[in-house]
Amino acid sequence: MDKADAARFAGRRRAERAERGEADSFSAIVRSTHLPMIVTDPRRHDNPIVFANPAFLRMTGYERYEVTGRNCRFLQGPGTCPDAVARVREAIRAEQAIAIDLLNYRKDGSTFHNALHLNPVHAETGELQFFFAAQLDVTERYRLVREREAANTALHDALAVQTTLVHEIDHRVKNNLQMIAAMIVLQSQRIDDPATRASMMETLQRVEALSTVHRRLHQSESASRVDVAGLVRDLVADMIGASGRSDIRVALDLAPVLVHAEKSVALALLFNEIVTNILKHAFPAGRPGTIAIRVGLAEDLRIVVEDDGVGMPPADEPKGSFGQALMRTLARQLGARLAVESGPRSGTRVVVAMPASVGLPAPVDAPAG
Ligand SMILES: Nc1ncnc2c1ncn2[C@@H]1O[C@H](COP(=O)(O)OP(=O)(O)OP(=O)(O)O)[C@@H](O)[C@H]1O
Ligand SMILES: [Mg+2]
């Protein structure tokens, strides 16, 4: 052997030793890993297990001699999904990899959810040599999913009960308000002083506006949100109806906006004051006209109420009316800016601009008001 041959021989021995070393460490890893693994031999009859690592034996409860030489189907049982088994069989037939969860049975008959990753191993020639299957007991994951689903169902049921209760409360509040309204009507019939009577009628109108809010809340799907368009439409129809004015037209341009229930009462009362003012002051007897109402949600939640009536008289000195005080309080509750634009004979325009967070866009498929 010359020097070059000796070097080549030494090199080959080193490569063999390295290969053997690699195989040894691979085998040590497979034996010590917590990941259950098996190898099956599709070239032998019925594709039997030819190697199972200790993690696989721990997971299934079998001894090595009980699994070696058998097809994996002994892990299946009555609860195993036939479709999943068919998919595994098809992957084996097509020599393709598959990742699938199967319900498997241990030796003691108990079940576990097995996340199976099956891979064909081909020789360099392309010939199928083995199937390598890594598996993982994912029973805990299934249990957590089931628990979460049960918790969701329980939460959903509790919410439905709560919604029903709140709806019931709104229904009762609405009935009580209607009773108060009826009492105001009866009481006002015994009052002769026209000013006191008119004042009681305004109180009646406010109580009815509250009643409308609670009817809307009772009808609303969520019990915690009110559709502003529906509320505005109901309020204005009630008020025009009660005024007996058939010569006042209403033009509505209402975007689908929801508001939280706790804001809806203040909003309805504020709207009631604005429209009451129009019906009281803008169209003196015989003067027909139009009330245009716009609701929109953009950088703010905005309600614009415009009339083409007589316009506000020049403000010589602040009157300090109850209506004004009420509107200021309601605007504060809503975090709203109130702006009134008017001049004699030019109609009046009232803008209520609330923070956008007061409203939220109604779902597109929500039934319009
Ligand atoms: N849309 C309107 N068109 C014409 N004038 C209006 C309009 N709204 C308000 N005004 C005028 O502004 C005044 C102040 O209105 P405000 O609501 O503060 O008081 P009020 O309606 O007279 O009394 P209250 O609301 O306490 O019953 C009214 O008296 C009226 O002259
Ligand atoms: Mg007023």
Automatic annotation (TrEMBL):
* Domain PAC, first and last residues per copy: 96-150
Q: Which domain of life is it from?
A: Bacteria
Keywords recorded for this protein, A-Z? Chromophore, Flavoprotein, FMN, Kinase, Transferase
One term of GO molecular function? kinase activity
Sequence ranges assigned to domain PAS in this UniProt record: 22-71
Q: Which InterPro entries match?
A: HATPase_C_sf (IPR036890), HATPase_dom (IPR003594), His_kinase_dom (IPR005467), PAC (IPR001610), PAS (IPR000014), PAS-assoc_C (IPR000700), PAS-like_dom_sf (IPR035965), Sig_transdc_His_kin_sub2_dim/P (IPR011495)
Q: Which Pfam families match?
A: HATPase_c (PF02518), HisKA_2 (PF07568), PAS_9 (PF13426)
All copies of domain Histidine kinase, residue ranges: 168-358
> In its UniProt entry, what is this protein called?
Signal transduction histidine kinase
Q: Origin organism of this chain? A: Methylobacterium oxalidis
